[in-house]
Amino acid sequence: MKALVCHKFGPIDDLNVEELPSLEPQANEVVVRVAAASVNFPDALIVQGLYQIKPDFPFSPGAEFAGEIIKVGAQVKGWKVGDRVIASCGYGAFAQECRVDASRLIPLPPEMPPELGAAFVMTYGTSLHALKDCGELSSEDTLLVLGAAGGVGLAAIEIAKQMGAKVIAAASTSDKRDLCLQVGADYAVDYTQEDWRKQVEKMTEGKGVTVVYDAVGGAYSEIALRTLAWRGRFLVVGFAAGQIPKIPLNLALLSERKILGVFWGQAVRQNPQKHQENMALLVDWFKQGKIKPVVTQTVTLSQAKQAIQDLANRQIKGKVIVLPQA
């Protein structure tokens, strides 16, 4: 089988497509023929050695996928060869075959093409966990989403609207902001402008937002924190800007703001039942046409490393899908 392979931590450009032996499952695993996989920001981090997970070499990046089971481990129950599935695997999906623990599998709904299934688990799972489990978002809230035109940002917009909240989408270009409004955001703001905090205040009639969803970090975080109203919640989702901000804690004290970390992967491991409940809700919303991943580009395995680089450079809107069999 062919796979995009990382032999040592380093530049994304060091990745290469190689021919590898077909995979065999461990007792609690299955092997899936990957129909589609999606590019996520952790893919760029993991190959550079900057992510909290550091796999043994060699490995393939790619944290989520959709496909068909072709081999089943001896102790696996409830799954069989031929089942269509989606899963988050951490790494290994940018390959024609992926080995994954059976506990991480979710049935691929008949209504969901593999290209959409591959873009579903991480982005929507992360955003629902952030907004519902951590942020306790309600219809009384106004949500500010940083990096709103990315995969998790767009998912956060859709989910927040399903939960009844108002949404202000922060994105850096007019085409990104237009996409956010098309997906359902109530307002959009250019957070590269110096006065963007004042624009948010105007949009909220001076009250401020009640929840911030920050997947960007860097210099934007402190300004976003300052937009929070009394007892607002600041959700720390990621650092796409490449810098982990140092937040003055007096900003939390002055308005009794809460700063909440969001670590979806660990939350899945800590409470797999909650994860399954969240995914069931998301699948139900998808079937009702209430949410749908925004796929802006499909690429082959040989083009995947450029897609990872483009995402790291924040040049991507929505989701890019890798088709390993193409």
TrEMBL record:
Residues 10-322 form the Enoyl reductase (ER) domain. It comes from the Bacteria. CDD domains: QOR1. Pfam families: ADH_N, ADH_zinc_N. GO terms for molecular function: oxidoreductase activity. Gene3D superfamilies: Medium-chain alcohol dehydrogenases, catalytic domain, NAD(P)-binding Rossmann-like Domain. This is NADPH:quinone oxidoreductase family protein. It comes from Pelistega suis.
